[in-house]
Structure formats: C-alpha cells, structure tokens
Write a structure and sequence with these properties.
Elements lengths: L1 E3 L7 E3 L4 H18 L2 E6 L5 E2 L5 E2 L6 H10 L5 E8 L13 E5 L3 H14 L4 E4 L6 E8 H12 L6 H13 L18 E7 L4 H7 L4 E8 L4 H14 L4 E11 L2 E8 L2 E6 L2 H12 L6
Parallel strand pairs: 3-6, 3-8, 6-7, 8-11, 11-12
Antiparallel strand pairs: 1-2, 4-5, 9-10, 12-13, 13-14
Helix pairs in contact: 2-8, 4-5
C-alpha cells in the first residue's frame, strides 16, 4: 500500500513493499521528473511550396541546410526533450539518428501553420528556431489573358468612365474574374497567355507568440546586397514587431563557399556574430540551453 505523507504530499511511502520496490518507485519518480525538465524545441526549415496547379508550384531557393545543421547540434543536448523538425519533403534533414527527433513534413505556408498550431497546442514548447524561408505569395487562382480581355471589354465597352473609374473597374475584374482556369489538375502546356493571381501568405512568425507567449522565439531575416546597418535595422524591426527574442540576420551575398556570415540580435543589440552554419548552430544551442554555472 502506497500513501502520501502529511509532512510532504510529494513524498510516497510504501507500507507493504520490499526495500527493492521502494528503490523502483524512487527511480520512476526521478525518471519522470527528468522527462518533465526536458526542453521541447521546434525547428522550421527549408522553403514553402505554394501550388499553382497539380504540378506547378511557387517556391524559393532555400534548401533547409542551415535548419538541419542547427538540428544536428541540438540533438547532442542532454536536456533536449523532443525536437520537432518541420520541413518540405525535398529539404535537407538532420543527419543525426535520435529517438528525440520527430520529422514533420509540410509543403505550403498553411500546412506549416496547421502543424505548428497542433504541436504548440498539444505539447509544451520551450523554444522555436524559425529558419523556414516562408514564401511571401501563393497562387490564388489562374486565368487566361483572352478571358480577362473579353470580360474587361464586355463590362466597359458601353460605359462612359473616367480614367480613375476604369482603373477601379479593371482592378475589380482582376480581383474577382468570372472565368477561372481549372487548376485542380495540370494546366495545359499550350496556354499562351496564362496568368496567375498571387495572394499574400500569412506571416508565420507573427502567429507564434499568439499561440504561446512564453516560447523563446528565434527568427531569421535574409536580405541581399544591402549594407550591414540596413540589415540590422530591418532585422530588429522584425524582432520588435513579432515579439521575437532573437533574430538571425543574414545577407545573401555573404553566404557562399562554405561561409555563412550572420549577426544574432536580441533586445540589447548584437548578441554575437558568426561566420559559418556550424557557428550559428552552436550559438543557438547556447541560447536555448545556456551552459550551467559551476
């Protein structure tokens, strides 16, 4: 028979068990406490793929290599609980084999958001490394130039309109055309004037703290060919806007030949600067798992 003591409700006392059973009970309690103290981490990595039809898609040049490098580093951490690694099918994956790793395949921005909402709802997450290169646009619908021209001519031919009214009418037709191309299957390869209306994707980084304000959020900002001052200014604005704890600022022109220069920012300014993906990964590990003081 096992009872809790009045002096300490968290202490179990067995009145009928052998000493060996007591050791087993203590071991189970210690193991459970250890599991509870582990930190669950999310990494998003690689591009998002936004479909135009069943074959074509809009994507970007991200490979997911940096996210995979960060994952391999974090998987060496003893205090890691579960590492949720979200990426599209063809992106780089961590090389490390571990029971702590859960691979989650996503493709579109909406896939990514759906997966994040489920994970954060079902599991207490300590930190998130949002390294995914989320596309800014998705294919909202497609239509042909011929259909668009015919609709505009039909609706405007008999009207006396000012230039501003014509502009508004044409824009309204483009936003809500009557005849759309069927994109549930592969669109014909012979459409001479095929047009794709792009819509804005939701900003994933802006949703994270809404789901759990306690998550330690590390975001990324990539620009190309800008001065360092501009890169850091834009990155810090992103940090403030989305309540991120850290932002990794990258300049595309400084990512080549094994080099990956980056500056990591927090609310106090520059946290550290890195020259390679491995250095970035080690810096993020220190942020998520600070070295214990002796």
């Amino acid at each position: 028979m096992i009872k809790r003591t009045f002096e300490d409700p968290n202490t179990l006392v067995c009145f009928t068990c052998s000493p060996g059973s007591l050791l087993k009970i203590n071991f189970i309690r210690e193991k459970k406490a250890g599991i509870m103290n582990k930190k669950n981490i999310i990494i998003t990595s690689g591009p998002t793929n936004e479909r135009i039809d069943s074959v074509m898609k809009i994507t970007n040049m991200s490979t997911g290599k940096l996210g995979a490098t960060v994952a391999d580093e974090l998987l060496q951490e003893e205090e890691l609980g579960t590492l949720f690694y979200l990426s599209p099918k063809l992106a780089y994956k961590p090389k490390t084999q571990s029971d702590k790793l859960q691979l989650v395949t996503i493709e579109s921005t909406l896939d990514l958001l759906k997966a994040l909402r489920k994970i954060i709802t079902d599991t207490k997450i300590y930190g998130m490394v949002h390294a995914s290169a989320v596309g800014d646009y998705y294919g909202e619908y497609t239509f042909t130039g011929e259909d668009l021209a015919a609709e505009i001519a039909k609706k405007l031919s008999s009207q006396q309109l000012t230039e501003e009214e014509i502009k508004n009418k044409v824009l309204s037709i483009i936003e809500n055309p009557e005849i759309l191309t069927d994109n549930t299957h592969k669109i014909s390869s012979y459409e001479k004037n095929l047009m794709v209306k792009l819509g804005l994707t939701p900003k994933v980084i802006g949703e994270i703290k809404k789901l759990d304000p306690d998550i330690l959020l590390i975001g990324f900002k990539l620009l190309d060919g800008v001065q360092k001052e501009e890169l850091l200014e834009v990155a810090d604005k992103l940090r403030q806007k989305n309540d991120a704890d850290y932002i990794v600022a990258n300049n595309l022109c400084e990512i080549h030949n094994g080099m990956h220069k980056a500056t990591i920012l927090n609310k106090d300014g520059i946290y550290t600067e890195c020259k390679t993906k491995q250095e970035i990964a080690k810096s993020l590990r220190k942020i998520l798992f600070p070295p214990k003081m002796n």
